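In the design runs reported in the main text, the only information available to the sequence generator was the tokenized backbone. The following block is the verbatim input for one such run; it is reproduced so that readers can re-run the procedure and compare outputs position by position.
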């Protein structure tokens, strides 16, 4: 038996990575399916309406209906108009616009909730990764000290081994933001 380190060949590594990637995609799909299951009936209806109203079919239907309405009420068909001043058309379009904007807002609220949920997940994963990386740097630094590697004495590494407090980062961002605004800069 050989004591030489065994390295994975690139195809094994790619297959392993593909497996991890596939697992992550499946987990994301499960989360999205769970989000779909948690939607209320009203949210399902609002989603279907906004999906339809955001389509070209909706545009074409309106083009046809409005064109026919105008042709009919201009008297071009030889039939007595029912809305010669087009007030009925304007009223219908206004009421429709009110309802459509409400459906769009309902869908946007739901999308904002999902975006907040994903942002929280991203933050938790980032904090966990930062914590793990800090521990790895600490471990590698200790090994480098033990092996008397010059880079172990780099002051930048000392800074990297300190845990970052998320609240402190947010406070620093807020202070920078306020200073930028005071100086006439932009808010990011």
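Verbatim output:
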């Amino acid at each position: 038996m050989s004591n030489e380190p065994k390295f994975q060949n690139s195809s094994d590594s790619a297959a392993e990575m593909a497996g991890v990637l596939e697992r992550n995609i499946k987990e994301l799909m499960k989360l999205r399916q769970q989000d779909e299951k948690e939607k209320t009936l009203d949210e399902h209806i609002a989603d279907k309406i906004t999906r339809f109203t955001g389509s070209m079919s909706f545009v074409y239907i309106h083009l046809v209906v409005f064109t026919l309405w105008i042709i009919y009420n201009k008297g071009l068909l030889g039939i007595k108009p029912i809305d010669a001043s087009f007030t009925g058309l304007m009223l219908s379009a206004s009421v429709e616009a009110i309802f459509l904007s409400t459906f769009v807002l309902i869908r946007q609220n739901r999308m904002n909730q999902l975006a907040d949920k994903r942002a929280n997940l991203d933050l938790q994963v980032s904090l966990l990764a930062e914590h793990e990386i800090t521990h790895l740097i600490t471990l590698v630094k200790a090994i480098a000290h033990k092996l008397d590697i010059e880079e172990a004495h780099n002051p930048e590494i000392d800074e990297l081994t300190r845990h970052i407090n998320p609240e402190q980062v947010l406070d620093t961002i807020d202070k920078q933001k306020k200073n930028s605004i005071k100086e006439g800069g932009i808010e990011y």
